[in-house]
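Try this one yourself first.
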């Protein structure tokens, strides 16, 4: 526990949804305009190797609000026809409850999708405000949530002006963007022309857009399109279509940053800025055309699992740099906020996180854990494709239960030599010792955390493995569309 000051400081946690780690200006991306996120970074510090423990909204949020892995919360899908367990009914302690016990006014604005994980936080009804962005390109599909959330946060902070708080606040501004990119894809399905792009040259495709390793990947990745509507909808896209998708994604990020600027401006008006520790993060990433993939689902590549994490404000020295030598997880969020609040999460178990605060303040450095883990089970329950990822820093090992084909359901990457994950090394003789070491680490993880992954079964009908190999070859309906159609939904 780190005591920064005898006076309890406020906490402002700002969350973006589906923001990959390097799609911000302060990470060197020249195609976004994120001056407010960059300002937090320049006045604070970034943790550069933070991984999402499940690259899907519902499971990862239930997980990071409780500090328990998804298999421990029982929230392993986004819902739909698949039954998740409720956090509150299970009696699992939550971060919000612990912050309240520590004397905080814990309040949450915006996106929830938490399955009870936000228990303890005061939650305002989410306001859906129709929003017509005058600078909007190409269209602001679904963008009404963040406007309402931002207005609520502004009102909350402005109402503090000139007052002395009777207790510190732990406020969460939970923004939905750039998640709107999912709706964008739904508007531009398959072969299509693009509307004119008004803002100069289109952003370039990533180095790993071209991809020739598909035969070497697990079935769940090869046919990700058949489980994931958004990937199926991109079949037939041209390279230029993918560039427009990137431009749209960056547009939604710019919108997010403008909302963050308004939130920070109202914090200034509250008079509380000097006594507030600010954390900015995302729940998971987006594939941003890497390997010709979009959004997130089933796989564990860097773009979907690695997220930005920035500390700024009270107690955080101005460093303006990324700490890329550590290895963190969103499992570490609850312990970190508890650390700032001078408390700790009850009933910590193996596999749970630890506080990132000493790293942000410079008291600790380097890699303090052997690995981080991410999980997958299903999005809606139409296909069940259990998978796990274990990243040890330099190496990444993935394992799927659908263990057929050349890969036998495994991948192995040397992120130092191949940061784009272009080539899986499962069959490379030079990597067999490291691969076996990671298989052992994975078994150790399963035992230590009580993860019964190996006893699950995968369920994907033959029709979802039937077209020519590769997600860019997709034809027909994918599982959510077909199964809903035959169920008459
Ligand atoms: Zn398919």
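Now uncover the answer:
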């Amino acid at each position: 526990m780190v005591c920064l000051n005898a006076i309890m400081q406020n906490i402002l946690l700002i969350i973006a949804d589906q923001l990959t780690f390097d799609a911000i200006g302060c990470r060197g991306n020249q195609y976004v305009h994120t001056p407010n996120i960059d300002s937090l970074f320049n006045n604070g510090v970034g943790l550069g190797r933070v991984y999402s423990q499940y690259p899907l909204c519902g499971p990862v949020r239930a997980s990071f609000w409780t500090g328990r892995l998804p298999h421990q919360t029982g929230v392993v899908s986004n819902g739909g026809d698949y039954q998740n367990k409720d956090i509150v009914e299970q009696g699992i302690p939550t971060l919000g409850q612990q912050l309240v016990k520590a004397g905080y006014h814990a309040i949450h604005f915006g996106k929830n999708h938490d399955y009870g994980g936000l228990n303890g936080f005061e939650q305002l009804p989410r306001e859906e405000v129709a929003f017509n962005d005058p600078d909007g390109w190409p269209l602001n599909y679904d963008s009404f949530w963040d406007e309402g959330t931002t207005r609520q946060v502004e009102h909350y902070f402005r109402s503090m002006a000139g007052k002395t708080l009777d207790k510190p606040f732990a406020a969460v501004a939970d923004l939905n963007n750039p998640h709107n990119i999912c709706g964008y894809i739904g508007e531009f399905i398959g072969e299509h022309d693009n509307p004119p792009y008004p803002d100069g040259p289109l952003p370039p495709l990533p180095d790993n857009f071209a991809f020739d390793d598909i035969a070497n990947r697990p079935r769940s990745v090869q046919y990700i399109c058949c489980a994931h509507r958004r990937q199926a909808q991109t079949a037939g896209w041209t390279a230029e279509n993918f560039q427009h998708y990137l431009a749209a994604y960056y547009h939604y990020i710019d919108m997010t940053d403008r909302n963050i600027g308004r939130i920070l401006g109202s914090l200034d008006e509250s008079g509380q800025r000097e006594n507030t520790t600010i954390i900015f993060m995302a729940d998971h990433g987006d594939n941003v055309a890497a390997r010709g993939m979009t959004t997130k689902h089933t796989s564990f590549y860097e773009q979907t699992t690695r997220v930005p994490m920035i500390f700024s404000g009270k107690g955080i020295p101005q460093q303006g740099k990324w700490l890329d030598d550590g290895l963190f997880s969103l499992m570490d969020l609850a312990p970190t906020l508890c650390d700032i609040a001078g408390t700790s999460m009850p009933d910590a178990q193996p596999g749970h996180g630890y506080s990132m605060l000493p790293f942000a303040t410079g008291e600790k450095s380097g890699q303090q854990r052997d690995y981080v883990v991410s999980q997958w089970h299903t999005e809606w329950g139409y296909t069940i494709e259990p998978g796990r990822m274990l990243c040890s820093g330099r190496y990444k090992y993935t394992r799927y239960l659908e263990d057929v084909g050349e890969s036998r359901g495994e991948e192995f990457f040397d992120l130092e030599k191949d940061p784009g994950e272009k080539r899986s090394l499962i069959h490379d003789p030079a990597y067999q010792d490291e691969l076996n070491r990671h298989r052992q680490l994975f078994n150790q993880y399963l035992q230590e955390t009580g993860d019964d992954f190996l006893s699950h079964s995968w369920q994907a009908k033959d029709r979802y493995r039937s077209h020519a190999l590769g997600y860019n070859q997709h034809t027909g309906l994918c599982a959510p569309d077909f199964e809903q159609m035959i169920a008459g939904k």
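Discussion: Residues 223, 225-226, 232, 467, 474, 478 surround zinc ion (CB under 6 Å). Residues 1-5 have pLDDT under 50 and may be disordered.
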